[in-house]
């Protein structure tokens, strides 16, 4: 699923237990709760994801640039405000993503974004044959405003080809 256009909203208290597999190699934004959140950039768009959990394993084979796979949110772009709080990923993630693979958020970009990840945890193995792999965020591109990560924890094995980090 995705959120797009000039929409703002809140997603809270959601649990995913289903495994997510891209067998077609055509999907490049996959998330345990939301695949992608996009804005057209013409209005202020805010998204809050709160108290959500992913238990489903994620397997993605698309190696498209600017793709993304995340335990909670696969990819976001042109959101002015993104808050992910008190969320957890327990599902393993295996990808070929070039854009980013993260335990909570795979890939985010936009020069005006304020992104806050607070009180989140990843307790899963994250593996990618691509680059930009992290326990919480895979890649944050072109951010000029603010990225805040606080009160978070990561356990499990994080592995990738290039730009790999625990957080």
Rg (C-alpha, Å): 14 Å
Average pLDDT taken over every residue: 87
Q: What overall form do the CA principal axes indicate?
A: globular
Helical content stands at: under 10%
Strand runs, count: 25
Give an overview of the whole structure.
This protein is an all-beta fold and 167 residues long. 0% of the residues lie in helices and 51% in strands. The protein has strands at 2-3, 9-12, 15-16, 20-21, 29-31, 34-38, 46-50, 53-54, 58-59, 68-70, 73-77, 81-85, 88-89, 93-95, 101-102, 105-109, 114-118, 121-123, 126-128, 131-134, 137-141, 146-150, 153-155, 158-159, 162-165. The chain is globular.
In short:
The chain is mainly β.
Write the layout of secondary structure elements.
Elements: E1 2-3, E2 9-12, E3 15-16, E4 20-21, E5 29-31, E6 34-38, E7 46-50, E8 53-54, E9 58-59, E10 68-70, E11 73-77, E12 81-85, E13 88-89, E14 93-95, E15 101-102, E16 105-109, E17 114-118, E18 121-123, E19 126-128, E20 131-134, E21 137-141, E22 146-150, E23 153-155, E24 158-159, E25 162-165
Parallel strand pairs: 1-6, 2-7, 3-8, 4-9, 5-10, 6-11, 7-12, 8-13, 9-14, 10-15, 11-16, 12-17, 13-18, 14-19, 15-20, 16-21, 17-22, 18-23, 19-24, 20-25
């Amino acid at each position: 699923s995705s959120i797009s256009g000039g929409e703002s909203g809140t997603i809270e208290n959601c649990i995913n237990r289903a495994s997510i597999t891209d067998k077609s190699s055509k999907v490049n934004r996959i998330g345990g709760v939301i695949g992608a959140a996009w804005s057209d950039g013409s209005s202020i768009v805010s998204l809050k994801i709160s108290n959500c959990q992913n238990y489903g394993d994620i397997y993605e084979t698309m190696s498209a640039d600017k793709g993304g796979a995340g335990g909670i949110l696969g990819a976001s772009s042109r959101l002015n405000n993104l808050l992910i709080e008190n969320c957890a990923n327990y599902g393993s993630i295996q990808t070929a993503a070039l854009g980013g693979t993260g335990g909570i958020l795979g890939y985010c970009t936009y020069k005006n974004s304020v992104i806050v990840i607070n009180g989140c945890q990843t307790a899963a193995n994250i593996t990618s044959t691509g680059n930009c792999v992290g326990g919480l965020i895979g890649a944050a591109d072109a951010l000029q405003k603010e990225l805040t990560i606080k009160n978070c924890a990561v356990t499990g094995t994080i592995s990738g080809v290039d730009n790999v980090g625990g957080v």
